[in-house]
Amino acid sequence: MKRFALKGTICYSASLQELKVLEQGYLLCEDGVSRGVVEKLPGDWADCEVRDYGNRLIIPGMSDLHMHAPQYTFRGTGMDLELLDWLNQETFPEEARYGDLDYADRAYTIFAENMKRGATTRACIFGTLHREATELLMEKLEQTGIRAMVGKVNMDRNSPDILRERDAKESAEDTKVWLREVAEKRASGQWTHVEPILTPRFIPSCTDELMRELKRIQTEYRLPVQSHLSENFGEIGWVKELCPDSKFYGDAYDQFGLFGGDGCPTVMAHCVHSGEEEQQLMKERGVWVAHCPQSNTNLSSGIAPIREYLDKGLKVGLGSDVAGGSTESIFRAITDAIQVSKLRWRLVDETRKPLTFAEGFYLATKGGGSFFGKVGSFEEGYELDAVVLDDSSFKSPRPLTPEQRLERICYLTDGISQIAAKYVAGENVQL
User: Fold this and answer.
1) 64, 66, 63: which is closest to 228 by C-alpha?
2) Rounded CA gap, 56 and 380, in Å?
3) Dihedrals φ, ψ of 424, to 5°?
4) Which of 226, 278, 320, 379 is an S-S bond match for 274, by CB 3.0 to 4.6 Å?
5) pTM, whole model, 2 decimals?
6) Which of 65, 125, 18, 69 is nearest to 287 (CA)?
7) What per-residue confidence (pLDDT) applies to 1?
8) Residue 393, CB-side half-sphere exposure with 13 Å CA sphere
9) pLDDT tens, 219-238?
10) What is the pLDDT of residues 141-163, one digit of tens each?
């Protein structure tokens, strides 16, 4: 049994609205699991190791429910384009380069190093359709210590020849090879931090035959699923043309059994324009919404109705959506989510209040973390993911409460500079 305690100013979400704070408190960790937050060490913990971080803030690690590792190379460029043009002009040509393992190695090394240094401890990550490059990505992420679900992308139509699998059979067979190789590395203990997630890119890039193949694979391997949903008006119209029998975008996944439900935990990115029927099906199937506010702004997709989703009891977390989003910082995703919700409240629907800071923080931690299990809080029984924040570089002439300090970090940080220490499932990540 391995026990230790982290001491500092501890902040975590108990619920969507409740941000709990304890100054100079102790966060107890036993075998990678939180045993709660206390003012004083219990008697049976008196002899445990205490790692004292002074006045620094200790928060749960953050979860990124949607990002594209191969797009990290061109983040911050091409932002004048809308989604479909952006895919064709920027994304697909870049992702095609990952057929070159030397290029993939250089690119994924940069990506993994920055992921290690940031506040993200859990992530759902798209690779490319290239099996070898996806395994290389998983190897790089394994070395960072973070926990990641990584997908080899499937796409057999409506993409350039340089980035399209020959047919559904080839795509499915390559996916099975990938899954067998990943399983071998996990069984041997080589990989303990990364695991696979089934990744049909989106409906326009996957034939019906491929979707049926992927469902068979999903059932055999009991895999979670990640994809895109109702991001852009042009994309939604395209899905209607391709799938005339589907009632709405989400139904195009659901008819193949790849939209949540028993044994198929699913996260769908964006959901900017999901109508009433789609929302209801997401709730019934337990689909997680990966809210990507910066990407939705950059690519002119719109403002997702997150308050409405929360009011209706949908599961919601945050995504950076690099490179639709220009940074992997979930701190930035928190503030963007708050800001766009204010615009939606003021300009679209004044009956739905904007998100508060406490709610944005919840989405980044406990909300998104729930996709990975009991993750994202310091409540007893949760896996202990923690980030220690040093905000001493942000000078102030007046005293600030812990809540104010945390809010200010989220608005002012670059996502890396204030990270003083990082723990994932109780393991200290050496930054």
Assistant:
1) 66
2) 22
3) -130, 120
4) 278
5) 0.98
6) 65
7) 85
8) 11
9) 999 999 999 999 999 999 99
10) 999 999 999 999 999 999 999 99
